[in-house]
């Protein structure tokens, strides 16, 4: 709030809208598609981002986009959220912020809980489906999400948002900007703090974020320093619950559950996930007089965090090496006790990004390089043991992380691309995009089961893309494109494979993506249709085989494909009435799938051996064949001259067809189809020096009881083909509410 007087007294720069707009587009141009690029994408702008439920993570905000399926473990939008696009999971979706990848280099995932309140900080999102354009970091293997924070306000402002909702959910966001001043300087800052108890037990979240930009720009130069901090503490919810418990107590969560000496159920209150990230970006852009633009970005990201668990009735040998036990606790090796443990990590990520862009009447040519280095360390600590009690020197035990585990990894990448769009005639644009990625990964040290995960590999990928766009009239556009992509295995894929016995080393995945699309657009109606063929070779899938420590490993499956039709439309039926909708119809199959099921004896003891079950052609897990959305927005008093003209009512519904929890496509392994609707109502009061906005949100309007994702377990009795199976699920929240008050001046 101390920044508000400075913001209000800053120089007015209302004459600079064109210069402001250029900054946003130039900074992220290397990873974004343009209007004539033959790539399937949708844009989500600032207004749509700000009007969304303030507690929703970015995946939940994008849930209405074509081919997108999302779920949130805690039920309020805060906490762990997941998103698939065309069935492609999070590790296959490339996510960038101002052109810098946010995907963790090891897991290739983006953990959205670590970046709270992101929708209040970013100015636009481009969601590309398919391989899309060349991007830095892990290869997009189904989609890419390109976010920008580069927008600069032409005028000074300050805002305060207060939100309250179901299950003790509270949120506060404050932001201020000097606007673009006469001397070219500008300063933006935003802070957010959120809290919720969550829908299911232990789904609490305490998070905060800080965002700051200090920049300067003139007619040909832009210099910008960006800082983003995300800090989150949340209860662990990723275990889900079994289906029997779902039918009796869907809010149950066994995280932290144990029994005391008298057999009473107790819960460890700090069963939690804790993580903090700091992102620092320095960007310089120079626009030459001859159509050239040069952009450079330096990025440093530091992450630190840990998971804390209460583990009941575990052997000492699970958390202490044999050597330590024999020297210090010779009689404890096979004894069981209760433990409090931490599994932590720390990482450093350095990036240099540089690209050069040339634009003329007929040619748009961009080339760039990306160099990055990632270091990640993983460690385990024992904080307490019920047998050793408080007198044991846990600090000495954990010193150097040598008595449980410590492993690290270094991943380095060199990336270069050149992309051209050439318009030989007015109605035709030819597109070509050539990318080289050189990736090296070294892993060393023992895992949490004391098994070595030593690994060293190099990969070289060439990813070409080409296409044509036809625009024979202002209302019509058609395009066709083909792209070849490669994706290296992630840390989790590799480490269990390394520990496997008689398992072939895993190889990178390959995918050919063919897109054929048509778009029609007028002031009142827009519609699009897109056919996609995503053909996979050497897909990495869990087949049921086990590592030497009993963990599931992934193997390459020779052939698979995702083929589908995407439809979307928007109709401004009247000045006060708008309809939006989209639908995806797809086939997602593996050409030939074999599952390996672990054997047990009659007492349910695991034997460490497996049996093979051949399913032939089968459907891919968590890939619905039908997805659809419909939304209606009504502004009933738009013709009025007072504040009633801002009143907007929006209602939407999302349908997701049935999905399978594994790749065997068995009836008992399904997530049933579901339909969920949401409603929002907003109104803005204009004041002499600002405005007050009121927004109300009703999520899951029809109170649908459903689960959106899950997992399965199965065993086969030794020497037979008789299987025991079961599933676990992630219950989604019942009807819930959120209110937001915004003050802008």
Structure description:
With 745 residues, the protein is mainly β. The chain has one domain (4-744): TonB-dependent receptor, beta-barrel domain (Maltoporin, Chain A). The longest helix has 11 residues, at 17-27. The protein is globular, with a radius of gyration of 27 Å.
Key descriptive features of the protein:
745 residues; mainly beta; Maltoporin, Chain A; 22-stranded antiparallel beta barrel; five-stranded mixed β-sheet; 8 helices; 37 strands; 58% strand; globular; disordered N terminus
Mean pLDDT: 89
Percentage of residues in strands: over 45%
CATH homology group: TonB-dependent receptor, beta-barrel domain
CATH architecture: Beta Barrel
The share of residues in helices is under 10%
What kind of assembly state do the chains in view correspond to?
Answer: single chain
Structural class: mainly beta
Shape: globular
Q: Which regions contain 5 or more consecutive residues with pLDDT less than 50? A: 1-17
Query: What distance separates the N and C termini?
Result: 12 Å
Please tell me the total number of domains. 1
Radius of gyration, in Å, reads: 27 Å
Largest sheet: 22 strands, antiparallel, barrel
User: Within the CATH hierarchy, at the fold level, what is the topology?
Assistant: Maltoporin, Chain A
Number of strands: 37
Name of the CATH class: Mainly Beta
Q: Count of helical segments?
A: 8
List the helices and strands and how they pair.
Elements: H1 4-9, H2 17-27, E1 40-45, H3 46-51, H4 58-61, E2 68-72, E3 81-85, E4 93-97, E5 100-101, E6 124-130, E7 142-148, E8 157-165, E9 169-177, E10 185-196, E11 205-217, E12 221-235, E13 241-242, H5 243-248, E14 257-259, E15 265-267, E16 272-287, E17 292-315, H6 322-328, E18 336-359, E19 363-385, H7 394-398, E20 406-425, E21 428-444, E22 455-473, E23 476-487, H8 491-498, E24 509-521, E25 525-546, E26 552-574, E27 577-600, E28 606-619, E29 626-634, E30 648-656, E31 659-660, E32 670-671, E33 674-687, E34 690-699, E35 707-717, E36 723-731, E37 736-744
Parallel strand pairs: 4-7, 27-35
Antiparallel strand pairs: 1-6, 2-3, 4-5, 6-7, 8-9, 8-37, 9-10, 10-11, 11-12, 12-16, 13-36, 14-15, 16-17, 17-18, 18-19, 19-20, 20-21, 21-22, 22-23, 23-24, 24-25, 25-26, 26-27, 27-28, 27-29, 29-30, 30-33, 31-32, 33-34, 34-37, 35-36
């Amino acid at each position: 709030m101390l920044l508000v007087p400075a913001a209000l007294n800053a120089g007015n720069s209302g004459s600079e809208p064109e210069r402001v707009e250029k900054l946003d587009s130039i900074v992220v141009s290397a990873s974004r598609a343009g209007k004539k690029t033959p790539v399937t994408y949708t844009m989500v702008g600032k207004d749509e981002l700000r009007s969304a439920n303030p507690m929703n993570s970015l995946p939940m905000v994008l849930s209405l986009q074509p081919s997108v399926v999302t779920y949130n473990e805690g039920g309020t939008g805060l906490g762990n959220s997941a998103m698939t696009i065309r069935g492609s999971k999070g590790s296959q979706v490339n996510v960038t912020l101002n052109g810098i990848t946010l995907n963790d280099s090891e897991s290739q995932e983006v953990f959205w809980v670590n970046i709270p309140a992101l929708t209040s900080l970013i100015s636009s999102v481009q969601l590309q489906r398919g391989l899309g354009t060349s991007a830095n970091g892990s290869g997009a293997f189904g989609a890419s999400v390109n976010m920008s924070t580069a927008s600069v306000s032409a005028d000074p402002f300050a805002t305060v948002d207060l939100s309250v909702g179901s299950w003790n959910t509270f949120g506060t966001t404050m932001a201020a900007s000097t606007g673009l001043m006469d001397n070219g300087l500008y300063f933006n800052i935003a802070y957010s703090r959120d809290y919720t108890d969550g829908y299911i037990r232990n789904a609490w979240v305490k998070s905060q974020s800080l965002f700051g930009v200090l920049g300067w720009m003139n007619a040909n130069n832009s210099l910008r320093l960006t800082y983003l901090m995300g800090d989150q503490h949340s209860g662990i919810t990723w275990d889900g619950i079994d289906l029997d418990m779902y039918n009796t107590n869907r809010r149950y969560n066994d995280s932290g559950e144990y029994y005391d000496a008298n057999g009473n159920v107790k819960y460890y209150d700090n069963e939690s996930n804790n993580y903090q990230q700091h992102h620092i970006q320095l960007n310089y852009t120079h626009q030459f007089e001859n159509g050239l633009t040069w952009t450079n970005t330096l990025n440093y990201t530091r992450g630190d965090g840990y998971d804390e668990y209460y583990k009941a009735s575990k052997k000492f040998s699970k958390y202490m090496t044999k050597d330590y036990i024999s020297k210090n606790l010779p009689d404890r090796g096979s004894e069981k006790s209760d433990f409090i443990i931490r599994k932590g990590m720390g990482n450093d990520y350095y990036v240099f990004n540089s690209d050069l862009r040339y634009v003329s009447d007929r040619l748009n040519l961009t080339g760039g390089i990306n160099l990055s280095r990632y270091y990640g360390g993983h460690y385990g600590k024992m904080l307490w043991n019920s047998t050793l009690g408080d007198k044991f020197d846990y600090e000495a035990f954990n010193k150097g992380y040598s008595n449980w585990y410590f492993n690290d990894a270094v991943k380095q990448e060199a990336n270069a691309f050149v992309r051209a769009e050439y318009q030989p005639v007015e109605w035709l644009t030819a597109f070509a995009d050539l990318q080289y990625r050189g990736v090296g990964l070294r892993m060393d040290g023992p895992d949490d089961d004391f098994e070595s995960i030593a690994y060293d590999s190099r990969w070289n990928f060439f990813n070409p893309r080409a296409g044509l766009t036809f625009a024979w009239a202002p209302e019509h556009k058609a395009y066709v494109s083909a792209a070849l992509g490669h994706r290296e295995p992630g840390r989790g894929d590799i480490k269990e494979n390394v520990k496997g016995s008689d398992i072939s080393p895993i190889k990178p995945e390959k995918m050919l993506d063919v897109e054929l699309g048509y778009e029609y657009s007028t002031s009142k109606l827009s519609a699009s249709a897109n056919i996609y063929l995503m053909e996979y070779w050497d897909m990495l899938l869990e087949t049921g085989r086990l590592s030497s420590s009993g963990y599931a490993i992934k193997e390459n499956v020779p052939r698979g494909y995702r083929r589908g039709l995407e439809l979307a439309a928007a109709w401004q039926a009247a000045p006060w009435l708008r309809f939006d909708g989209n639908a995806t119809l797809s086939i997602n199959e593996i050409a030939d799938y074999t599952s390996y099921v672990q054997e047990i004896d009659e007492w349910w003891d695991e034997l460490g051996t497996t049996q093979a079950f051949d399913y032939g052609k089968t459907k891919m897990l968590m890939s619905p064949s039908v997805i659809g959305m419909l939304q209606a927005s009504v502004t009933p008093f738009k013709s009025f001259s007072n504040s009633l003209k801002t009143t907007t009512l929006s209602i939407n519904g999302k349908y997701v067809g049935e999905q399978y929890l594994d790749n065997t496509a068995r009836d008992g392994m399904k997530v049933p189809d579901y339909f969920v609707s949401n409603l929002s109502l907003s109104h803005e009061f204009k004041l002499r020096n600002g405005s007050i906005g009121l927004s109300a949100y009703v999520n899951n309007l029809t109170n649908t009881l459903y689960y959106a994702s899950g997992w399965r377990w199965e065993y086969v009795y030794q020497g037979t083909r008789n299987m025991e199976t079961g599933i676990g699920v992630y219950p989604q929240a019942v009807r819930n509410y959120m209110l937001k008050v915004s003050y802008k001046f």
